[in-house]
């Protein structure tokens, strides 16, 4: 009988010698935060920031306006403006307008912008006009922009 070169190899099972030693793995962090929720769902409303963060109501208004505009019925669009858009907060109205500008919805932008102009809190913002002009010009509607600007200048400056 021959003796092996390593005397401990006789007593150790063969799979232990082939397996590398286990490495220490740190446990994954678990988020355990409790949050009080109100029953009416008002805690779900996110604060509106500059950028592309929209409230739930603003998202629903954009979707409803686009759906009503796709039908081609003017009454349907007016109904959606009354039920969804005109009841929004000031910041949500501006967010809806900016989102429609981002999506190149020129016809809806005009409707929404006319409604916003009628609000008592509205004051002209140069950045909003610049964004609207850029979108209309990129869609080949520069003549409409010039007509609207001439109208705004005559009505509000004079």
From TrEMBL:
Alphabetized GO MF terms: RNA binding
Domain of life: Eukaryota
GO BP annotation list: chloroplast organization; Group II intron splicing
InterPro entries assigned: THA8-like (IPR044190), TPR-like_helical_dom_sf (IPR011990)
This protein's name: Pentatricopeptide repeat-containing protein
Species this protein is from: Punica granatum (Pomegranate)
């Amino acid at each position: 009988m021959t003796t092996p070169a390593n005397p401990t190899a006789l007593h150790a099972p063969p799979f232990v010698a082939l397996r590398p030693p286990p490495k220490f793995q740190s446990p994954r962090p678990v988020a355990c935060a409790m949050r009080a929720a109100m029953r009416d769902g008002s805690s779900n409303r996110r604060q509106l920031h500059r950028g592309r963060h929209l409230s739930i109501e603003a998202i629903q208004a954009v979707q409803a306006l686009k759906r009503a505009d796709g039908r081609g019925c003017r009454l349907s669009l007016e109904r959606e403006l009354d039920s969804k858009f005109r009841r929004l907060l000031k910041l949500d109205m501006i967010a809806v307008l900016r989102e429609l500008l981002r999506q190149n919805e020129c016809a809806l932008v005009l409707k929404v912008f006319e409604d916003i102009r009628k609000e008592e809190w509205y004051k002209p913002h140069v950045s909003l006009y610049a964004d609207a002009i850029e979108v209309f010009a990129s869609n080949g509607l520069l003549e409409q922009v010039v007509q609207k600007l001439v109208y705004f200048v005559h009505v509000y400056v004079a």
